[in-house]
Amino acid sequence: MDKPPSTPPLPRPDDRTPLFSRAAVVASCVGFILIGALQALYGPSIPAFRDEYGLTPSTAGLGLSAHFVGGVAGVLVFDRLFGRADAAARIGNRKLLGGSYLLMAVGAAGFALAPAWPAALAMALVAGLGFGGIDYGLNQLFAVGFGRRSTAMLNVLNAHFGIGAILGPALIGLVGAEHYTAVFLGFAVLTLPLLLCLAGVRDEAPPHAADGEGDHDEATGVDDAHALRARARSRSLATVLGAFVLLYVLHVGIEAGVGGWEPTHLETVGYGATAAASATSVYWLMMTVGRFLVAPLALRWPARSIIVVSCAGMTACLLLATVPALAPYAYAGVGLFIAPIFPTGLPWLNDAAPRARRAGALVIAASMVGGVAAGPALGKAIELSGIRAVPLILAAVSAICLATTVWLIRATATRPAAADARSIAADAGAATTAGPSPEPVRPAPGDRVREKS
Fold this sequence. Notes:
- It is built from 17 helices and no strands.
- The chain is mainly α.
- The chain starts with 21 loop residues before the first helix and ends in a 19-residue tail after the last helix.
């Protein structure tokens, strides 16, 4: 019997038209410099907020909180629009990114020109909406838009966020906090030219390798077996997603915890204020350098290997930070090792849960929540144990990240669902065709022997 023709599989991302032109890649990196700078501008500007609006320190800190609330909402809104099932109603990538850039520009300009603090907070929320849309949108598109190079490109993209986070406070320090309005307005103006480069972004993202498997399987007659296998895998999907969320929340908490408490810890163990501040700047610098350094490694090593090494190195460095003489260097090592986790985890997540379309939004939103919650949670722990325990507390959290990563490696180290489904269907088909046979039957000459898959 002739074998029925099978439907050819959909092309992989590597074989399709690129999702980004070279100009769009450069513009995306510039966009990440800007969102990194925007997030870092609020803190150094707090003295000026307090003087202009007559605020208490806690009230002035609400500017960054409003920005993060808008960021979480922006991630969820962008994902809702990006993942709409109705193709006719789906908004293209260009419009979504363009709308996010406009929201960020309008919010930044409105924050600078707001006549009262409530209006400024509303504008920070608007800027955060744009921030969240750009953060999630570009991360998600880079995660699927470059094929095998996606992990490397995500690290390069997020390294530019670090550049912005370094340049933002430096610019405020250069011009003075009292001129923060000019800095925010300049930021808004610099955002607008990026709209011109969106023509180089393809409106439809390429499918994951798993996309189209259902169609191919249906053509080859194994759709029922595939469904059985999919249901078996779905039982652990929620646990896997929960583990990724935990990894992202905790590692961002460590990132924020080191950045916020390293100066205080170093001063407590005997370093001067200038040395402690300089060491903290080096920590942020090493995060940026680490992402550039890991980009070529991501072309050779799988994401899970990079992340488990990162978590192990981060834990070891935090333990070394308990030694006062080694603490500044150990914190720099933490920055180097923690750098690849955020961008490298997204392609791994897409491979581990290709059918979970909301997975990327969930972990990115969770990472923002982790950054906000880290301050109060770590502060309470420090109240109970003292400043000198900062590296030990963070090391314990890092050890949980390491254990979670090891568990994820084991939980996701399974054969592809389609391959298992084909094996199940082949076994079932062979058993059905053969039927009961009291004794073995010898094949006739010239007949092919069917081998069990």
